Q: What sequence folds into this?
């Protein structure tokens, strides 16, 4: 049956085939002219660059006097797109006009990917991220990652904008830990305590770089960790020994406070009200009083940080609580039978931490 809406949609389809706008495509689903499938290709220099995003357009017999219902089928993280894929766009709501056709609808949605509107958010978290980044980067949601990679434990940087990994050639090898200190300084330490400041910014001419800010110092520990405590940078050194029954076990920790102006590390004997969690994932310090009765202050809670899978499967993991006051290791105080002989090693998981 031919109706005004169906005739108009046939004209829209013919126009879209003859003169398709760049980066979009669309067509009726099977033989149903009232239901369309469409694709928008991610615009350049946006977080969606290189992506292919699918949509559906559901029309009624009121078209073009009323807009279609448009939803993204592809999962989207965007300030103006709801969790169910529906779109907060004025021309699909109170600014609709019969002059708009399918090409105009898809082009408007494509423009929304280029220029989100955080003042009318459908996704508050995406809107917050866009607002925080739009003045510092022309590529919203741009981010960089610093990681320790490979057998030589080198520093590598990933840039989301370029989708590339870069080895920090001047940094050297044998890195043990990385920390974003005070939310602005990206620091890394080697197995012998050399501390470097990493600069991942570049202007297209210079690659990410590192500057040594504290030289190595002599110690006999086995693992090194960095953690921020009350605005101060602290290095923890973990001591591990062989045990015929358990394979390996932690028996001691040392802590050092970093003095920026002297570029020196000062030994400290206690952590005060703080509790530190170390292991194979990110090192974290929290105040014990915020979790009264659950954790002990002035202690280091540790999980296995060994790369020896055979030991972990045969004799169990190296887990416990080290007291900085009496220099002794105690059991964690919880039932560990479910994962003492499994791989990979257990790690700390703190969903409430920022």
A:
């Amino acid at each position: 049956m031919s109706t005004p809406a169906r005739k108009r949609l046939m004209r829209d389809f013919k126009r879209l085939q003859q003169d398709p706008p760049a980066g979009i495509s669309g067509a009726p689903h099977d033989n149903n002219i009232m239901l369309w499938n469409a694709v928008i290709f991610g615009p350049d220099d946006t977080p969606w660059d290189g992506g292919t995003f699918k949509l559906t357009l559901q029309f009624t017999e009121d078209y073009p006097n009323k807009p279609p219902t448009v939803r993204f089928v592809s999962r989207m993280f965007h300030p103006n797109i709801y969790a169910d894929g529906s779109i907060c766009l004025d021309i699909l709501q109170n600014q609709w006009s019969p002059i708009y056709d399918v090409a105009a609808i898809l082009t408007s949605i494509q423009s929304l990917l280029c220029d989100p509107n955080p003042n009318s958010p459908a996704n508050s978290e995406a809107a917050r991220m866009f607002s925080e980044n739009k003045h510092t980067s022309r590529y919203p949601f741009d981010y960089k990652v610093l990681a320790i990679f490979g057998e030589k434990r080198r520093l590598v940087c990933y840039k989301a904008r370029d989708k590339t990994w870069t080895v920090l050639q001047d940094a050297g090898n044998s890195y043990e830990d990385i920390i974003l200190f005070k939310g602005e300084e990206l620091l890394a330490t080697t197995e012998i305590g050399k501390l470097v400041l990493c600069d991942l910014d570049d202007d297209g001419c210079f690659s990410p770089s590192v500057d040594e800010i504290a030289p190595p110092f002599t110690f006999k520990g086995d693992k090194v960790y960095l953690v921020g405590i009350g605005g101060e940078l602290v290095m923890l050194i973990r001591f591990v020994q062989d045990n015929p029954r358990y394979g390996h076990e932690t028996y001691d920790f040392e802590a050092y406070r970093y003095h920026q102006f002297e570029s020196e590390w000062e030994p400290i004997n206690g952590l005060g009200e703080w509790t530190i969690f170390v292991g194979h994932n990110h090192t974290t310090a929290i105040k014990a009083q915020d979790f009264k009765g659950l954790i002990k202050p002035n202690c280091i809670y540790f999980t296995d940080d060994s790369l020896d899978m055979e030991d972990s499967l045969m004799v169990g993991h190296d887990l416990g609580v080290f007291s900085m006051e009496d220099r002794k290791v105690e059991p964690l105080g919880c039932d560990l039978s479910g994962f003492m002989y499994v791989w990979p090693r257990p790690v700390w998981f703190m969903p409430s931490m920022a």
Observations:
- The CA atoms of residues 78 and 126 lie 5 Å apart.
- The longest helix spans residues 4-18.
- The chain has three domains: 4-133, 141-218, 224-353.
- Residues 4-133 form a domain with the Ubiquitin Conjugating Enzyme fold (CATH 3.10.110.10).
